[in-house]
Amino acid sequence: MKPRRTRKIKIGSLSIGGDSPIAVQSMTATQTKNIPATSEQIRILEDAGADIIRIAIDDERDVECLKTIRKGTRSILSVDLQENYRLAPKVAPLVDKIRYNPGHLYHLEKDKTIREKVEFIVNAARENDCAIRIGVNCGSVDPDYKARFPDDSIQAMVTCAIDHCQFLDEMGFENYCVSLKDSDASKVIEANKRFSEARPDVPLHLGVTEAGMPPEGIIKTRIAFEQLVSAGIGDTIRVSLTLPNEEKGQEISVGREILEDINHGRFRSVPENFMDTLNIIACPSCSRVENDKFVELAQEVRRISKYAEQYKLTIAVMGCRVNGPGETDDADLGLWCGPVSVNLKQGPKLLGSFTYDEILEKVKKEMDRIISERFGSLPINVT
Question: The pTM is what?
Fold first, then answer.
């Protein structure tokens, strides 16, 4: 492997960057308000050897629950502010790292500039000795950057990340890292390579977001990590898999296995047309998921779509309102799962909202229609 060139930063007692070991992290998939379930999820990830555990915080009640959860663990905790950056001063004393999404800042408090919002987060982190992750996500890129790069979604992400690094640099805050995530492994590779060329000093957190279920989700992630880590890019990783809550420790064990293989030169080749067949994207679940049935639904979608494995189609199964709408826009069929119903989309077009009992039949019908229109006929073994 090529040596990493990034500077070292501190996340609690953990150092990342430079010659520090690559850290492996995961995220709780439970409702933060459910303290026993979230504490158990943290225990599962601790037992699996997680270096960092991330928790999503949406509101004041989540903050109060985080206080209790924090007392029950000595793990290094990261918090995901998502749509409520104003909570930064309240959560910073309880965690070791704050992750914010530049795309979400765009939509909040339009009377303030993006820089003012970033400075608010930076001040909270600085006062509480927290690290920051600038987390740029393909499904929620700041619209200004999408408009600037209408034909290059990768550059929109990279430029947004570089500009936010500049904000933090100008504010004299150096204890930060960056992530650039997409559900397409090739885009993750290209985005991180471009960013690393522009800012070789900034530590990078790697991940293929919504990689899906094993084994396909592991393969997609491995493709990205093998290309990047071997090139000296990547200081922390997350394997995002759609799994039952009690199996989330797999994200840690799989991540360590991939790193071990790369370190020993054990690379897993895949056919050139691996991504030219059916691709099921599914989010790994988190505390924002509004109905846990979506994990089972993702498994069922894979089962009923096996007859179409040879067709280049993308089906996205998303579990929450935060990433669901944006990250189903590019899919041939997108399922954005709510508390009692599933919004079915074809690209950005909404086809309707269906109950969890109705949705599979509708998905099958729409798949048949798309295959017939695009490829001319259905598979012989269609049932």
Answer: 0.86
